[in-house]
Design brief:
The protein has no helices and 5 strands. By secondary structure, the chain is mostly beta strands. It has a domain at about 30-65.
Amino acid sequence: MAHKKGMGSSRNGRDSKSQRLGIKRFAGQIVTAGSVLVRHTLFALVDGKVQWERRGRDGRQVSVYPATA
């Protein structure tokens, strides 16, 4: 029998930073062209106001309506 404890190694002992996924701009917010609306997915093509809308029963759609001067 061994008289010393073996040195175990931890394989999952690191903690990674969260990726901050999800919705970045909400309904009613004013955005500029190029602003990220949903991380990794959608961005505004024009300056305007963000509007979330229902699409069908389970879907959602985001639109950016140009600001009228």
